[in-house]
């Protein structure tokens, strides 16, 4: 006993960690780890998951042959909240909410542009900002072209229109969970 | 046998038995003592049983035994903290009752509100009181903070109390905002969409926060349930815990602050002594609080019965955004800031800095004085801050900085898509079918054929007339506000039995292209629509 006590004193002088302190620290650290764990589990528990085909998950919008021809009116996909537009630069999936205050814009086929009914922001067919109070171009979703046989991703585009592959059977898939903010204009 | 009955004894024994039971309930106040309390007489026993209550009763142990007289001056506290608590308790009670008839699902929610309004006795009253109480709680929380700031009551030992107060402000805003969504009407849906979109502006975690809040990328069944649970369980529980800490500090540790004039500078000793005089909680303060509670309830009931009814628009439609959508009023300042610049800077960085600043106020301000005259900088900054909030809130309104085309604006102001406008205030029998054309010299009476005339409709149409003419003739307006060569009409048709269709139609030349443009808006008005 006396030897132990002496050892303890010596240790204190050296300010190294003795067994009791070490166990206390380990205990506290494990408590901290538990708190972090609970936080992480709650986060994962509360975070929504999305199935294929519902808004927030990936959506197959069809094959290349199903797409609207270049320069034609965009197609509205209300359930997954996007407009599919095909311009000369390629195909885009635009999030259907105006970047200004969250109104839903519409396609004006006479003028050939998107116009927001609330405050009059206007956008090109590929989502580029024309005029109005909106701070940036339309938000778009990540879009991919998938090889129908192998399931390989042939092309994908994040912040610009995706050039279309020639094969008409290639599947076009949109990831509505990955929204890319439009470019801010000066 | 009867001889042994002594009526004096029976009376005394019965009285003693009752007295004992009463003492058990009141934690020590006997019948005589209760009588003395109500009459304002001095205590009947020694030691003072009114003090004992504060140690033996749970509900009274969190209340102080006495206040110092100086702290009870009305113009020092304005009872703002009391009323904030009053609203919290009122909201809890009315909220629990309202939960009986409410179902938190997109299919049922709106219907349950309609049912509450039309089919439940006092349902509308309860909803109105709950809504008005929510607005009141936000207002009084903010006013309470301003009062604390201006009287310098956040210093030294009170700095932690101030911190809990800032947290309570956040919880109060959260409570009010989460409740906003529950009626599931257009107002609720789009106000909350805009509100949560502001969170989305945050870099890195903004989208995650939004997903956690809404349970989906947009508000739906999951989002409604999450908001509901936050509103009825999470936030009230958090508020109760933090409020208890906040109040315990005030009641048990440092008390309500004395006005600076009693503690700083040359205070005559007799004034100082007077300010420290004790006012017992029982009966003085208790009766005052009962009075304030009654007053608050009276004002709320009168206000909701005669002047205020909680708004309810048409059922939420995620496919259609109504014009003039705005966030709840206590977030207008944030919307105003968002108009000023970059969403990330204005929507996240500055508001976060603001919260940090608010928490840090007691630690930044090292000035030991509390009198307003001795802290001109702090008071000046406080006033500036209040003015800034007002200005920013104004800038958050849809009227500011958003270029709604003139034709849409004019018609929207007369007959809004949601809610009531001047058109809705015109009595049904004054809406005579016909075509009314906007012209320079408008006749004084629009329906000369009708012997009782149509003064209200004439007044409404005159407003329409004036605004169109102003937009046509005034060339100094901005381009979007102008309507060159406008032709405008209002057409009233008998559409069906007891239903009229009112059409506003405006034609004008586009300022830039010179093209002829038109705007048309239809409103249907039923004879039996209830005027508010």
Write a structural description:
The complex is a heterodimer of chains A (186) and B (532). Chain A has 186 residues and is of the alpha+beta class. Chain A has helices spanning 2-14, 19-46; strands at 58-63, 75-77, 82-87, 90-95, 106-108, 113-115, 122-123, 129-131, 140-146, 153-157, 171-180. Helix content of chain B is 58%, strand content 8%. Chain B contains 21 helices and six strands. In chain B, a hairpin with a 6-residue loop joins strand 5 (499-509) and strand 6 (516-526). In chain B, helix 8 (123-150) packs across helix 15 (281-307) and helix 9 (159-181) runs antiparallel to helix 12 (221-254). Chain B is globular. Classes of the chains: A alpha+beta (186), B alpha+beta (532). Chain A binds chain B through residues 43, 46-48, 50, 55-56, 78, 81, 101-104, 117-120, 132-133, 135, 176-177, 179, 184, and chain B through 190, 193-194, 197, 207-208, 211-212, 215-218, 222, 319-321, 323, 325, 342-343, 401-405, 480.
């Amino acid at each position: 006993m006396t030897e132990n006590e002496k050892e303890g004193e010596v240790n204190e002088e050296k300010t190294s960690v003795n067994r009791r302190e070490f166990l206390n620290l380990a205990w506290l650290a494990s408590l901290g780890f538990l708190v972090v764990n609970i936080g992480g589990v709650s986060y994962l528990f509360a975070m929504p998951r999305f199935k294929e085909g519902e808004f927030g998950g990936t959506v197959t919008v069809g094959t290349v042959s199903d797409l609207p021809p270049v320069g034609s009116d965009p197609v509205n996909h209300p359930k997954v909240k996007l407009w599919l537009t095909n311009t000369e630069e390629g195909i885009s999936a635009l999030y259907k909410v105006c970047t200004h205050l969250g109104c839903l814009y519409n396609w004006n086929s006479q003028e050939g542009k998107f116009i927001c009914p609330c405050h009059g922001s206007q956008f090109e067919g590929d989502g580029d900002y024309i005029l109005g109070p909106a701070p940036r171009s339309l938000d778009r979703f990540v879009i991919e072209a998938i090889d129908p046989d192998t399931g390989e991703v042939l092309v994908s585009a994040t912040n610009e229109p995706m050039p279309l592959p020639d094969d008409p059977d290639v599947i076009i898939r949109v990831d509505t969970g990955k929204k890319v903010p439009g470019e801010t204009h000066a | 046998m009867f001889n042994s009955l002594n009526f004096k004894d029976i009376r005394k024994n019965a009285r003693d038995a009752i007295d004992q039971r009463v003492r058990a309930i009141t934690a020590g106040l006997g019948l005589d003592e209760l009588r003395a309390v109500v009459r304002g007489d001095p205590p009947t026993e020694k030691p003072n049983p009114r003090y004992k209550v504060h140690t033996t009763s749970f509900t009274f142990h969190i209340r102080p035994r006495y206040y110092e007289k100086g702290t009870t001056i009305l113009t020092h506290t304005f009872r703002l903290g009391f009323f904030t608590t009053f609203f919290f308790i009122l909201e809890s009670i009315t909220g629990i009752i309202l939960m009986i008839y409410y179902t938190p699902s997109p299919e049922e929610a709106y219907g349950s509100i309609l049912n509450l309004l039309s089919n439940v006795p006092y349902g509308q009253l309860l909803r109105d009181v709950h809504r008005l109480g929510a607005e009141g709680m936000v207002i009084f929380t903010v006013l309470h903070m301003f009062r604390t700031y201006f009287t310098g009551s956040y210093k030294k030992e009170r700095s932690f109390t101030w911190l809990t107060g800032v947290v309570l402000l956040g919880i109060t805003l959260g409570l009010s905002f989460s409740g906003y969504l529950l009626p599931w009407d257009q107002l609720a849906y789009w106000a909350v969409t805009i509100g949560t979109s502001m969170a989305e502006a945050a870099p890195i975690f903004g989208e995650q926060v939004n997903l956690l809040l809404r349970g989906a990328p947009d508000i739906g069944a999951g989002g409604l349930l999450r908001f509901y649970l936050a509103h009825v369980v999470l936030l009230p529980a958090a508020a109760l815990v933090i409020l208890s800490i906040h109040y315990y500090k005030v009641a048990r540790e440092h008390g309500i602050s004395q006005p600076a004039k009693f503690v700083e500078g040359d205070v005559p000793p007799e004034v100082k002594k007077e300010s420290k005089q004790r006012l017992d909680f029982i009966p003085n303060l208790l009766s005052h609080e009962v009075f304030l509670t009654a007053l608050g309830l009276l004002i709320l009931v009168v206000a909701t019965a005669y002047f205020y009814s909680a708004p309810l628009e048409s059922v939420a439609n995620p496919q259609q955004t109504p014009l003039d959508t705005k966030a709840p009023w206590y977030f207008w300042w944030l919307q105003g800031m968002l108009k000023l610049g970059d969403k990330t800077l204005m929507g996240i960085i500055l508001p976060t800095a603001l919260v940090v600043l608010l928490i840090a106020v007691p630690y930044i301000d090292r000035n030991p004085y509390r009198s307003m005259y001795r802290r001109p900088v702090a008071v000046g900054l406080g006033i500036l801050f209040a003015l800034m909030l007002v200005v920013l809130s104004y800038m958050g309104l849809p009227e500011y900085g958003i270029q709604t085309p003139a034709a849409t604006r004019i018609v929207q102001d007369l007959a809004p898509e949601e809610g009531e406008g001047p058109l809705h205030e015109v009595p049904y029998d004054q809406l005579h079918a016909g075509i009314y054309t906007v012209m320079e010299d408008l006749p004084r009476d629009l329906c000369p054929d009708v012997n009782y005339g149509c003064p209200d409709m004439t007044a409404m149409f005159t407003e329409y007339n004036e605004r169109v003419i102003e937009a046509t003739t005034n060339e100094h307006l901005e381009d979007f506000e102008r309507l060159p060569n406008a032709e405008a009409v209002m057409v009233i048709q008998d559409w069906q039995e007891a239903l009229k269709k009112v059409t506003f139609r405006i034609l004008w030349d586009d300022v830039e292209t010179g093209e002829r443009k038109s705007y048309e808006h239809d409103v249907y008005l039923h004879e039996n629509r209830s005027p508010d």
